[in-house]
Amino acid sequence: MTAINPVTDLTIEGDVAVITLNSPPVNALSAPVRDGLYEGFKAAIANDAVKAIVLICDGRTFIAGADISEFGKERKGADLPAVQDMMENSPKPVVAAIHGTALGGGFEVALTAHYRVAVPSAKVGLPEVKLGLLPGAGGTQRLPRLVGPEVALNMVTSGDFVGAAAANKSGLVDELVDEGKLRDGAIAFARKLVAEGRPLKKVRDLQDKVEAARGKPAIFADFRKANARRFRGFEAPEANIKCIEAAVNLPFDEGMKAERDLFLGLVNGTQSAAQRYIFFAERQAAKIPDVPDSTPVLPIKKVGVIGAGTMGGGISMNFANVGIPVTIVEMQPAALERGLGVIRKNYENTAKKGRLRQEDVETRMGLLTGSLELEKLADCDLIIEAVYENMAIKKEVFAKLDAIAKPGAILASNTSYLDVNEIAAATKRPEWVIGTHFFSPANVMRLLEVVRGDKTSKEVIATLMQLSKKIGKVAVLVGVCHGFVGNRMLAQRQREANKLVLEGAMPWDVDRVLYDFGMPMGPFAMSDLAGLDIGWSKETSSSSTIREVLCEMDRRGQKNGKGFYDYDENRNAKPSAEVEKVILDFAAKKGINRRTISDEEIIERCIYPMINEGAKILEEGKAIRASDIDIVWINGYGWPVYHGGPMFYGDVIGADKVLAKMREFERTMGDDFKPSALLEKVAAEGKKLHQL
Ligand code: 3H9
């Protein structure tokens, strides 16, 4: 064995050279890896004893792509195209041996090998689109030559991985070898190639699949149309489609040039910078400075959930989905039955869509036990309370739990804004109490705000952070404050949206601007969806907000076909003349001189105070880092990932510009816009908000 460099070995096994990469964690194509590949292939090709070359990786995976942290920095080391040229033009067959995930540039390297073998558990994919990119190492030109443009379009615009069996069937992988025997299997395959005198198959030379699609622009037009909604706002999907079009219509080298140009456009753009930042931010969120990885984690073998409503039901599903039994407690038999029924219906709908097997529906339902007695939670390792959002009720529940739960059980509250310390104080074991703020629908939304009380123990935090990963959530640790991170910032936007409607905009103006910004829906459409009458009662209604007036008129939202909008039978919204009149009358009564409000002002008024609130949250230490705030907004509220979250967006605008606007609004509209000291500091020092 020869060490080519610290991350690359070359072993000559008789007539086969094996180049082994070992660059943890994922063998990304960093400068040393590219250097190792270049020198390794050069040496193997130059060695006369070598008849075939195998490229394989140590550790958990084959090359998982370019080193994302290298983008935007000065490039060092060998050029990837030079490595790929050498592989593809090697006079000896090159075999890529794949395990783990061959992704992005890693899979593109494999596509320049003459053959690919894989173990059954391997996956391949071109996920660049998820980073706002396109496969920039020939992937968009080689892939359609192997599998045709239709499959290629789906793969590059979804970024989804393909399992080894399917990859073998579609021709992405030439042969499957036994699990755990990749190295031997790949060497045997290479020897077979030599023995049979098989040709050096260069994917770039394959023509039939792209030729068949030439002169058929409808393939692309139809694909764009069918996916327009999914691609809304994103630049990368269109650039990916253009590359596949180029593969079909242009000779290979010209297609490569088109790919290069489009790649450079994306990699230097703001969207990809935002998406790459979010990739790392998501992984960073799991790291808690004072709760090291070595912190003991408590086993969670049984969960209790109090409340079988929408939230309680969704929360319970998360655990049943991963095989953890759940006891769900309700006060009334009817409510319990209804709750369990809704869960079953949810599972059955998923099964109908082909995303769950019927027997899994039964297995999961079998893990859920309903009960009317809190005492049944005595043996649970984690109990999550999801009852009505009312401090007195929550305290009562926690006092009872304190008496019932076994020692060492974690007691969690699914509150969305209440003081977790006050809840914890209702027990004699505040160190075991924590907040788990799930987002609705709780079985779907990826975000979990884990709320750390003053006394919550590190073990409890570590356990919740790890458990959330197991149930497929992105957890963000936040501190106790009204509304935590997400709802606290949302309140800023809601306040301004309401004010804008009084000052001159209509709800549909505000919604349109925020939708065009990339949010899934605006605040008024969201209120209609949730129901305008949440927390409203006829008896106490005082006609003091537009929302109250609408409730008094029985405009309760989507559920009864009228809210801020009028809805048709298919729940399509259209602006309501009645609501317009309510707003105009309301403003007139308040003596407000309505004015024209620009789209720009809507963005500034709704979003800059959120950024400012984010800075306050950091100032108060309620979030560990700015990127955690961005993760909250992307995973909990549908903030468009290409804008990178509110804090990242603040830097795209410029902290100084956000500050200047806040000051101007403060002068003209008062204290709601008071800049945070941290925003002032960042702007003065020319720092970046998202790096705080
Ligand atoms: C590309 O290839 C462009 C080319 O087309 C063009 C070239 C010219 N780079 O996710 P995990 C780190 S674009 C740097 O927790 P898992 C990650 O930050 C790239 N670092 O593990 C983490 O670090 P830490 C296309 C990377 O087992 C650690 O590895 N490829 C990279 O849950 C473990 O990661 C992709 O988009 C990277 N490429 O999942 C694949 N990948 O421990 C991106 C990972 O310090 N990667 N790290 O927090 C993934 O999807 C997952 O990481 C993977 C493993 C499925 C591989």
From TrEMBL:
Residues 483-567, 602-687 form the 3-hydroxyacyl-CoA dehydrogenase C-terminal domain. InterPro entries: 3-OHacyl-CoA_DH_NAD-bd (IPR006176), 3HC_DH_C (IPR006108), 6-PGluconate_DH-like_C_sf (IPR008927), ClpP/crotonase-like_dom_sf (IPR029045), Enoyl-CoA_hyd/isom_CS (IPR018376), Enoyl-CoA_hydra/iso (IPR001753), NAD(P)-bd_dom_sf (IPR036291). GO terms for molecular function: (3S)-3-hydroxyacyl-CoA dehydrogenase (NAD+) activity; enoyl-CoA hydratase activity; isomerase activity; NAD+ binding. Residues 302-479 form the 3-hydroxyacyl-CoA dehydrogenase NAD binding domain. Pfam families: 3HCDH, 3HCDH_N, ECH_1. The lineage of its organism: Bacteria, Pseudomonadati, Pseudomonadota, Alphaproteobacteria, Hyphomicrobiales. Belongs to the enoyl-CoA hydratase/isomerase family. In the N-terminal section; belongs to the enoyl-CoA hydratase/isomerase family. It catalyses: a (3S)-3-hydroxyacyl-CoA + NAD(+) = a 3-oxoacyl-CoA + NADH + H(+). Gene3D superfamilies: 1.10.1040.50, 2-enoyl-CoA Hydratase, Chain A, domain 1, NAD(P)-binding Rossmann-like Domain. The gene is fadJ. It is found in: Peroxisome. Keywords: Fatty acid metabolism, Isomerase, Lipid degradation, Lipid metabolism, Lyase, Multifunctional enzyme, NAD, Oxidoreductase, Peroxisome. GO terms for biological process: fatty acid beta-oxidation. It comes from the Bacteria. This is 3-hydroxyacyl-CoA dehydrogenase. Monomer. The keyword Membrane does not apply.
